[in-house]
Amino acid sequence: MSKGKSPSEILRPMATYPLQSHLGRGLHTLGLLGWILEQTGPADVYVSTFSTSDAFLRGFHNLRKKELVQKSVLLADLKASKKTYRLYKEMQECFDAVYLSQNHSKVVLVQNDQWTVTVISSQNQTYGDRAECTLVTTAQEVFYQQYSGFRDLVDNNSIQLNGLFQRLTDQNTRPLQSFDAPTGDFSIIGY
After folding, report:
1. Per-residue model confidence as pLDDT tens for the chain (191 residues)
2. What would the pLDDT profile of 137-176 be if each residue is shown by its tens digit?
3. Residue 125 DSSP symbol
4. What is Dmax (Cα atoms) for the chain?
5. 37: buried, middle or exposed (CB in 10 Å: 19+, 13-18, 0-12)?
6. In 3-state terms, what secondary structure has residue 53?
7. Separation between Cα atoms, residue 55 and residue 67, nearest integer Å
């Protein structure tokens, strides 16, 4: 898997170029987010995606450790829930809140006192060699339109992941009697 090019090889500083786009290979969301945060400084980050990956979550965690990410929210798709189940502990370490919804959008919103940055992309938070399209803008109107849609999905059309799998596990475990384990074992129903 290609880790891509440095965004500064493809894009120009946001202060000078408030609307930029790219269609091609090599511009990946995590690198782009790091590039944005280098310009904005510490900010709140909202990520909407169909699917995410170990690599994205590790990189996001590193941005948090550098104190570039303040508040953070992830909105992922319900259909990717098997992968989400595998990654949910990492997600919860990276993001203050994680939600699942019927979601295919790929949007990253970055905001602090001086900046509102919107990234609209065809790319999930994964790495690959496929061509992707990405739009980066600092236009407040675009940010607030996307943020409004994000909030609507979170508030009205999602379930919060934080603690969900543990609650489901607690509700759906039952002792199993087996010949090998006379004291029983636990099985998660539905997984």
Report:
1. 345 689 999 999 999 999 999 999 989 999 999 999 999 999 999 999 998 889 999 999 999 999 999 999 999 998 765 555 667 788 888 999 999 999 999 999 999 999 999 999 999 887 778 999 999 999 999 999 999 999 999 999 999 887 554 554 555 665 544 444 444 443 333 43
2. 999 999 999 999 999 999 999 998 875 545 545 556 655 4
3. B
4. 71
5. buried
6. coil
7. 19
184: tokens are 């029983």
Angstrom CA distances, 18 to 2, 11, 45, 117, 138, stand at: 27, 11, 18, 9, 5
Q: Which amino acid is at 35?
A: W
- Phi and psi dihedrals of 25, rounded to 5? -95, 160
**Tokens 């319900």 map to which residue?**
78
What's the CA gap between 61 and 8, in Å, rounded? 22
Strands in the chain per DSSP E = 19-24, 43-48, 69-77, 97-101, 107-111, 116-121, 132-137, 158-160, 173-176, 185-188
Residue 9, C-beta contacts closer than 8 angstroms, at least 6 positions apart: none
Residue type at 76? A
The DSSP line for 146-182 is HHHHHHHHHHHSEEE-TTHHHHHHHHTEEEE--SS-T
